[in-house]
User: What shape does this take?
Amino acid sequence: MNIFKMNSLPIIFIVFLIFIFSGCRTKNLISPVTFPIPSSLQNESIAKAIKEAAINRKWFPYEEKEGVIYLSLEVRTHIVKVDIEYGDGQIKIVYRDSENMLYEEKDDGTILIHKKYNDWIKNLRIDIQLNLVSIDQ
Assistant: This one.
């Protein structure tokens, strides 16, 4: 009987770890994400750089107005929508909506979202910045 208890300890420990780490699927939502635009660029070039970066990262530009491009991203069952505002020397990526992204507003005002969201936005930002630099040269 004692042997059974000793052999079950590693299993109990593994179950405990799975339980603990399953809660690590969310992170604080970072929004807006703001970064500068080279001053020499016109809005048309900026919009083109944003759309090219978005499409290369599998984002879909579903609407566009002066100074704003609306994007959506579908990854498996996850859907994310953001607004990309540009002008006044900066670009701002703003969270709009999501599905299956574990979005949660806490009582203290903190907003949590699936841990991949911030990575997707970071990659999009980097690609937009690279496109802007290549246009500016």
In short: The chain is about 40% helix and 35% strand. The chain has one domain: 26-136. Residues 26-136 form a domain with the Alpha-D-Glucose-1,6-Bisphosphate; Chain A, domain 4 fold (CATH 3.30.530.50). The helical segments are 2-22, 43-56, 115-136.
